[in-house]
Amino acid sequence: MDTNTTLATTVKPAPRWDLESVFPGGSGSTEYKIFRDKIRVDLDKAKKAFAKLPTKLAPAAEAQWIKFILEFQRLGEHLGLARSFVLCCISEKVNDELGHAIFGEVDMMIADWSTLHNGLEALFAKQSDKQWDKLMANSKVVQIKFPLSEMRMLAKEKMAPELEALALELSVNGYHAWARLYDKISGEITVDFEEAGKVEKLSVGQLQNKFNSPDRSIRQRAFVKFEEAWSSRATLAASALNYQGGFRLSLYKNRNWKSPLHEPLRMNRLQEKTLNAMWKAVATTLPAMKKYIEAKKKLLGIDKFCWYDQFAPVGKFEARFSFEEAGDLVVKHLASFSDEMAEFSRMALNNRWVEGEDRPGKADGGFCTGLNLLKQSRIFMTYADDFGSMTTLAHELGHAYHQWVLKDTPYLATEYPMGLAETASIFNELRVTDAALKEVTDPQQKLMLLDQILQQPFSLFCNIYARFLFDRAFYAERQKGVVGRSRLDELMVVAQKEAFAGILDPTEGHHRLFWASKLHFFYTEAPFYNFPYTFGYLFAGGVYERASREGKAFAPKYRAMLQDTGSMTTEEVAKKHLGVNLTRDDFWTAAVSNSVRYVDEFCALVNSTM
Ligand SMILES: [Zn+2]
């Protein structure tokens, strides 16, 4: 049947977003230039004001301190808008050269702001608790007490300010540069790949996309080529990994931080006990994961499950949704939980906060960026009329809602950690997928949806856990010296064996060079760039499960919880708004069992369709 093609041609194209009302004329906008020039002037003034700030916080200095802190915050918010706007410009037009130049310019200003940030936190650390508490009780800063006190606490855990300043400067070429070198190594790899009698030159990213092919021989050939390509670069990648890891550990040693998890846990405002409780609960899902994969193997007609089978598609979901229909569906499914969330999403769609049009020259992927100063957001995506696009729209509208409930919160208290950043987006996704599942009757469509739902916990509980185990083992060995390339391979296979618990075929199922092929291991902005994904998914799942039980009565509590995500630790958010203790097992046990609740249905459906 080709009703799909007929339908697809009648589908209205997705709309373009409104950037004109932010600054008219794109990256070349005069208004935008004036806005940036003003920030530059104000940053210079702030630098001078900082130099004059009394270093001792006596009662007479308090007003001057408050004034400076508020100006620092105001500049942060203005820089946020400057950056978001140019990000929108270069995303909708990747060859916007002026936009790219401005992007670099704004980043330089943000670096200046960060220098002020560092100076300020060092100053905070020097004040007595008594003086500090008095300052924080001032009504002008009481709402940003948490982020300011966090700055002070973090500064106290660091080295002397002049050493920190030196470390920061050295990190540009001595630390972050390793990540850039890795990008170069990865970017320069091209592989000849033959498909349907045609040989194409592919990047490693394109080659990796072949792991999603329904044809197993393509997935397998792509994987073999992928490992070969990385094998030829593995010695270089091993050096990059060892040197940046060594830099990090030296810094930690001088800051007297005992564990390599200290920094990532601080970044996520999380305790190690919480992380351990989460992984402990995750381990209990392995039998369910095995059951799911056994059924999937049956469906795929394979007896050995390999790395490249993880994303093999099953079932079919060919329904087309226009952008308008997708928007209507998202609004409808949200309305059954919260009128306010539905109204917000409708408003965002009507006011053209979403860039959805499918046209050449746009960047890949999707994001939601806050324009806090204007109390707005913008969502970037390329809408493709399919189910995946609809869930992406729901996901990004969740981010926008999160920013919306924080619109009247002072800027510094709107910054939430990565582990909480996906709460509202995953919540929306779960809502839309669950609703779609209820409406679907065709077994093939149902299979695809269930598989899509289950791929998430499978990936987050096994694949991400393997990354975490690898990182932990790598840092433990790196503390004693350089870890050779073949040892990295070994550590990776050991991590995969433990995390996948026998799901991957023992002889050919592992991806031993995963440590080299995965960008996240080389990401210097956030070490251990893995567990926040699992955390975010399970936290959102736990919140979603609560919402399913309590219904509309939970909506105001949900909103209040999101509002506090930038004003307290993750454990405090959970305690205050969900009444749960994240360091204990019960929340996690419920969250993990909820996330695998469709395994039995999937297995039964597989059996009935075979
Ligand atoms: Zn997201």
**Ligand kinds:** zinc ion
The description of the largest β-sheet is:
3 strands, mixed
Beginning-to-end CA distance, first to last residue: 23 Å
CATH second-level architecture of the domain at 26-156: Up-down Bundle
CATH fold category name of the domain at 26-156: Butyryl-CoA Dehydrogenase, subunit A, domain 3
Tally of alpha and pi helices: 26
Could you say which overall geometry the principal axes of the C-alpha atoms support?
Answer: globular
**Rounded Rg:** 25 Å
Mean pLDDT: 94
CATH class of the domain at 26-156: Mainly Alpha
Q: Please, what is the oligomeric state?
A: single chain
User: If strands are numbered along the chain, what order do they take across the biggest sheet?
Assistant: 3-5-4
- What is the count of β-strands? 5
Sheet/helix structural class: mainly alpha
**Amount of helix:** 55-70%
